[in-house]
Amino acid sequence: MAMIDNNICLAQFYGKSQNYTKISRTLYNKYNVKRGLRNEDHTGVLVGLTRIADVIGYTRDDTGNKINCNGVLYYRGIDINELVTNDIYQKYLYEQASFLLLFGYLPTTKELDDFCSILQKNYELPHEFLEMNLLRLPGKHLMNKLQHALLTLYNYDSDPDNTEVYPTLQKGLNIMGKLPSIAVYAYMSKMHYYHRKSLIIHYPRADYSTAENILSILRPQSTFTPQESRLLDLLLFLHADHGGGTNSTFTNVVVSSTNTDLYSSMAASIGALKGSRHGGANIKVSLMMEEIIKTLGLHASEKEIKKIIEKIINHEFFDNQGLIYGFGHAVYTLTDPRAELIKMYCQQLSKERTEVKELFDFYVRFEKLAKSFLSERNQTAVCTNVDFYSGFAYQLLGIPRDLYTPLFVISRFVGWLAHNIEHKLYDNRIVRPATKYVGNTESYIPWEER
């Protein structure tokens, strides 16, 4: 519901301000200012150095021209496809990636067991935290509630403002262990308070992985199949990090570089991730596809799908923004490796249920036509990004839409923590960029002359 503006004068102030505040687009080129920290070819402006993760979406020829290629995501120099496909699955894929991102090397079996034990000991919430901060204070939006919960955890820390590297690692792992429970409890509380749904509380199990605990706490009977927990484990793994240039990670480094506490910098990252241009994008995809299927049905013809794609582009369907969500990426050009892996796993699971197979087949057909349409329209390759299939995967798992972006928080937290620590260790300067003033110099106008 839109806010009713009873302050007519405020609207007048705002309208008048347009004569004084406008910045012409031409000035960005004049002063060589990169809008959105993007170069003219849409690549990101370098703002730091990292050894944590690398995102490859294109190469360059001898003259510096950009060449499209299949995407690769590296965690500490290791292709994520190798991490997924080469190991015998041991149900702790996300935890293994977390170890790798934080410490820079792959753990032995014992090292991974010890690391998981540390996380598992941190599963339990502080005394009365659930009752006082989640059940009695439900939130309208789970991302805002997660921010509130993290800032509240500050009060349970005996030394919350200690920003030294090792205490930061300890505090980070403590939060990591608690986030899955906090996110699901926040959802349960919201549904109970605002939608009058039954309130069922399950406690985390110390013998479960992060993925297993999320499913166990969320589901009324706490039951799940090995295939389901593996898919969620994969989703957590794929979202664990995406380099230092992503908005929420960069936000974390910027905020923490002021030497503020970890809880504040993590809350800031959650605020950045909430937006539909970042972590909230998979919700947009899910809503868009739901509306398309409702309109066309699962057995729509190629001609009908093409027509609705054109309507979306022409601002005539869904949210009228002219965007086909789930396609295109700031770095990836031909493929997003995360999307390819999720698609493969969803295809395997869809074979087990007829109604899911029909839904998956529609997604595949829509993907093919949307990519073709956008690539031809933009005169460059447009790939399917991770958000197109991640929402579908969550739907397969019966995870409510409200939890899509909080699950992103749970997963990406380790990436934020790794970059936070890396900056403290090897840069440790306050991040302070500059802006160019392009306004006029004005003389003061006395009261009686205004």
Automatic annotation (TrEMBL):
Keywords: Transferase
InterPro entries on file: Citrate_synth-like_lrg_a-sub, Citrate_synth-like_sm_a-sub, Citrate_synthase, Citrate_synthase_AS, Citrate_synthase_sf
Protein's GO biological process: carbohydrate metabolic process; tricarboxylic acid cycle
Enzyme Commission identifier(s): 2.3.3.16
A Gene Ontology molecular function term of the record: citrate synthase activity
A GO-annotated cellular component: cytosol
Pfam families xrefs: Citrate_synt
Family to which this protein belongs: Belongs to the citrate synthase family.
NCBIfam families found in the cross-reference section: PRK14032.1
Protein name, entry field: citrate synthase (unknown stereospecificity)
